[in-house]
């Protein structure tokens, strides 16, 4: 039995050893598969994976790390991380590694700037964890390095664009505003503060209805509602605002729908131009135009009245002339004819002829026209002009007017000057005849 018993014990030992070996092989195979899977993941991720020793020398990394640093695997292996950074960033990296080493707490999302082999720079977002051996002793560091150069470039460009945008907004003379969907101010520039008279702290979060009366608030609501419903911006809408001190300000406002990154409406924005002075100027012009219309109407009425008065005066003048001429012809001339027939003295006859001539001049249409057209002619010059027109010689005129011939010549010269023919060869009689 003993042998049998011994044989039984002998047969059980190899069986136990064989099971342990199989379990060990299975565990090794599982570990190998896990390692291969992890390695495959590391090799295929777009982010860089790295391992460095405690001094910072690269001991392992994936292909993405070589692309980020711009170096081949042979060039990067064993290279110290400080050698691919400038002095400032190398110092920052050392501080992070030192903190992770002493605190044993991983660091995440640390930004470093790497220098590639070509000399260009890449910005990476790095995580750092402490790497240990099988006995849990620190042997180095590992982590992920994500190239965020493009993202930072976009962020920088966006930041510069925002700064430029804000600089422009703050320096324009017109007011710029942003309100939420209920009309509360969320952003505005200095010009908007000056227009409303409220400080930044007072205006921030204030509803725009507070700076309007009920009528204008209703108009604003309609405009905002239309912009919200249609998505179409509106321009040059005139509103009346009430400033902090209660004074009126007129603004010309544009309204545009403000959206978030998902294009959802979140509020409104636009430009508010202060047109108070222009509006007041226009109101002044309108008032002046109305005043001018009234004065023009009054002047037209006055001109009409004056025209009527002048027409009446002209009719009265004509009536008076006709009355005078009629009286001369009907009353004076018959007695003059009788006196000429009964006169015996030649000198008396000459006087009567001159008197008749003068009376004819008074009733002559030529005399009236000449006196009207050339008001600067003296009475004697008008008489001389009338006699010249009728073909009288210098001697005849001298005898009839009882003046000397030289005096007649002087009058003729003066008449030529006054009627504008002094320096021409035009006959004085021909010119006078042309007057009718």
CATH-defined superfamily of the largest domain:
PAS domain
The name CATH uses for the topology of the largest domain is Beta-Lactamase
Beta fraction: 15-25%
What's the shape? rod-shaped
- List low-confidence stretches: 1-11
N-to-C SSE string, H for helix and E for strand: HEEHHHEEEHEEHHHEEEHHHHHHH
| Assigned CATH architecture of the largest domain | 2-Layer Sandwich
Looking across the biggest beta sheet, what order are the strands in? 2-1-5-4-3
| CATH class designation of the largest domain | Alpha Beta
Give the helix/strand class: alpha+beta
Number of domains: 3
Total of DSSP H or I helical runs spanning 4+ residues: 15
Percentage of residues assigned to helices: 55-70%
What average pLDDT do the residues reach?
A: 85
- Which radius of gyration do the C-alpha atoms yield? 59 Å
Distance between the termini: 181 Å
Main sheet summary: 5 strands, antiparallel
Describe this structure in words.
This protein is 59% helix and 19% strand. The chain has a 5-stranded antiparallel sheet, with helices on both faces. A 5-stranded antiparallel sheet has the order 7-6-10-9-8, sandwiched between helices. It is α+β, with helices and mostly antiparallel strands and 436 residues long. The radius of gyration is 59 Å and the shape is rod-shaped. It starts with a helix and ends with a helix. The longest helix has 67 residues. It has 15 helices and 10 strands. It folds into 3 domains: 121 residues, PAS domain (Beta-Lactamase, 2-Layer Sandwich), CATH 3.30.450; 102 residues, PAS domain (Beta-Lactamase, 2-Layer Sandwich), CATH 3.30.450; 104 residues, no CATH class.
